[in-house]
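quick one, two chains, predict together pls
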Amino acid sequence: MRNEIKIFSPATVANVSCGFDVLGFCLDTIGDEIVVRKSKEKGFRITRIEGFELPLNPLENVAGVAALALLNDINLDFGFEMEIYKKIKPGSGIGSSSASASGSVFAINELLGRPYTRHQLTHFAMKGEALASGIEHADNIAPALFGGFTLVKSNAPIQVLELPSPKALYATLIHPEIEIKTSDSRAVLPKQIPLQLAITQWANVGSLVHALHTNDYQLLSSALQDVVIEPYRKGLIPHFDSIKKQSVLAGALGCGISGSGPSIFALSEGLATAKSVEKSMRDVYSKSGIPFNTYVSKINSKGIKIL
Amino acid sequence: MRNEIKIFSPATVANVSCGFDVLGFCLDTIGDEIVVRKSKEKGFRITRIEGFELPLNPLENVAGVAALALLNDINLDFGFEMEIYKKIKPGSGIGSSSASASGSVFAINELLGRPYTRHQLTHFAMKGEALASGIEHADNIAPALFGGFTLVKSNAPIQVLELPSPKALYATLIHPEIEIKTSDSRAVLPKQIPLQLAITQWANVGSLVHALHTNDYQLLSSALQDVVIEPYRKGLIPHFDSIKKQSVLAGALGCGISGSGPSIFALSEGLATAKSVEKSMRDVYSKSGIPFNTYVSKINSKGIKIL
């Protein structure tokens, strides 16, 4: 069994338009790198974090809390050290904390010879996620650990479904460098919603799952609608409507808020279209004066990868 | 081209627990028989109805209104006569009016050499359905015309998705001979629902569609939950909770209200289990003093059949 491992832990998109709180998918080109090694000293230490300023104290770090949740479950006469090379900006809405939490428990599980299933790792990683968001949820953790598209059927007990996805599906993302407070993105959500809108939303969720199973891009496009959450949250993201309009004009199948924002995702058939969509997004934000980054990525069907 | 056709137009189950207003499936052993023949006289006449007392005037009959919607769309120098042998009791909650409306347009389309697609037939049949329910909806018409499990993604324009279903899936139904007024079954529905319940419901709809694609009976079972509508409507159906409890104890994957009731459906893996479920349902109602009928049926993957 190896004593050290280096992994790539990907960014993820949660919610995916109609699938608020349940759907997510995994990205390929954006992610953190994490090095974990066994140590003679028991317990768990984070020895280095690069990229963004985050606490080294495991109890204050999502990767640390996730790791400790796992290590509290197992009896070992040795410990672990971790280095985190953070590439995903915290608060960007593409699963930064999930990448750290998922990568942490994935890497430790590998070094232990995989005693835990991915469902169990999801459970541990959710403890870390809760440190960042205040709630144990798996909508970013599931796609990071399972890869591809995932549907979180339930959080307690955790039940993740692995959905297939068409091979030529690409995501385009824009991350406007603004801060949306978690409290704000929650506060705008309604507690009650009209039954008629809920029906439209679950028709779209069912249609989206069917479209993924049947490689039906046209259906996927028509199912990528969020009539419930987006109308409330889009006001927190400057130029959201323009980004969406221009993305679709550039050929995107659909466009929506990534997680609770501020990042915006679009899905496209084929890399060329995804790049046209990226250009259309850049054109909108270039005029805004707001700093931003864009990414194009294949859907990552594997999830976390060993480097 | 033939001048006369006899068809079997099946009963159907709409809503299917979590899939309120969008999901439905088709039954095999219960249905109306309809005979349609060309006539030299133009227009459309219903010459005979057996089984239940229903109006012969096409404008007052769902099969007639559906037929006229089709015939108004096409120029013919001949007409049609129809005989309806009604086996499905109107108001039973298993798509009685849909069977008549769907069968009517299906049969005429066959005699015309199939100028219309099933989506177009759905559109015409919905005009008939509207006479019975006051609303144009396709949640019983779609499974009758397409067979199997269907998801009505939208009503205007009509978009029906054909979902696969596991081969060993059987339905058990109990029809308590009570009347639920459509106005009552609508009046109990909330206009607003909690967002959290809506999320649970669309997680279940997505899971149900995935379960149908993957032949996953266990997932199908856990997805067959209705947290939104059933709590409001079950009070209209005597002994609903007992039927549900005993069905599941007898091995059913799930149990819910068929359409807007009063019929109750259960789904099971295998005919033997479906028959045990039938017995458990009969045991509950035998003590009630309420007259009832039960049925066991394979999922009908074809829909309407030519006899």
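Residues 195-214 of chain B form the longest helix (20 residues).
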